[in-house]
Design brief:
By secondary structure, this protein is an alpha/beta fold. The chain is built from 18 helices and 10 strands. The strands form 3 sheets. The protein has a 6-stranded mixed sheet with strand order 5-7-8-9-6-10. The protein has a two-stranded antiparallel sheet with strand order 1-2. About 1% of the residues have low confidence.
Amino acid sequence: MKPHFKTIENDLKSLKAFIFKRIKIYFSDSDEVVLPDFLELLNSDIYSNFLAHYKLSEDERLVLIMAICNEISPHIFDPFLSKNSLYDVIYTEFGGISGEKTFTPTIQSALFLLCGINNELRLEKLAIFLESATLFKHSILESASETKLLNAPLKLSKSTMHKLLSNSTEDYDVAKDFPAQLLKSEFEWKDLVFSKYTKDHLNELTIWLSHHEELLEDWGMKKTIKKGYKALFYGPPGTGKSLTAALLGKKLNKSVYRIDLSQIISKYIGETEKNLEKVFVLAEEQDWVLFFDEADSLFGKRTQVSSSNDRHANQGTSYLLQRIDECNNMIILASNLKDNFDEAYLRRFQSIIYFALPEKKERLELWKNGFSQKASLSSLDLESISHEYELSGATIMNVIRYASLMAIKRKSSEIFQEDIIKGIRREKFKEGKII
């Protein structure tokens, strides 16, 4: 048995004893003050560290173990299935969602254990179940906002369940539950091909991520310089904005999460702020880099208010501007056009980096580096192709993919010039151009 499972088992035993004690007091009409008798956390295990990390109070510890109990030892709640003989139903004070032989604890159940029937105390303890309080703010428990507060079941979030109850040694991708996607790439930082201008500006970002703590703490600049860093990547599609964000994290061993604002707005209309707040809270806890793709869809120039939808859009814009200002993480916004942004945002960026279409020299490097080592390029004139066709890095890779597949289809390693040209025409046709 893993050490933290033993600690959890001790808390389950304490919960079981506490339930019997509380119900006994309830039926005896006593005013006795009763508290859970948790053992002291002595071991530095996952469960103990979890409680310490979030600074959970004894009350919050009780609520957490109730949610854990609901997953692994629901029989401990059987005493709550006692029925009021007068009405032949379980006691309302116990709360819970009861099935034929099951009892699922709710916030009402937790309040009963914490307070008995002391209404004044219940009003005080309600504070720990607010969305802004630790258990829900940090997504330790699943949000209670979908139902009436007291009727909300005590349910572990997927990330908490993974941390405390899973045998897996891999970290849980906490963003699975939110509108964010972990950016990954097989490329390395050295594989990026950019102009000197772009490379110099990108180096500023890596220097900040590597040395900002020294600047703020050792140099005492935290009073005058904000801890967070905001950058704008802009330029034509396919020029490497998303790839650069992914490799920036990879280079500095930080997770980069991509947030597509256009999808959030359409999927979560009316709840944009709520869902993004969860992402910001997690980002600050986990030290993520946040990458907002197609950012001008929400961060762009604010519209004149002619309808409730316009008013909602402007409210969402104002919220995000404020939240980004407050965030202590690196935040990267990406757009095709800088001019799409409200000037109020542009003034807040520490870096604004233009991702241009590659020049001839850079295109040649992309062509040479893009093919497999198995491919034979002896019949290609990459110099002339690089000179004649102005393509983005993403487009070049699409052409390389097409030409390589044609070679494999012929059961050959030779890449033909005619397949390269055909691939370029296919890509241009996608853009509505004919060559």
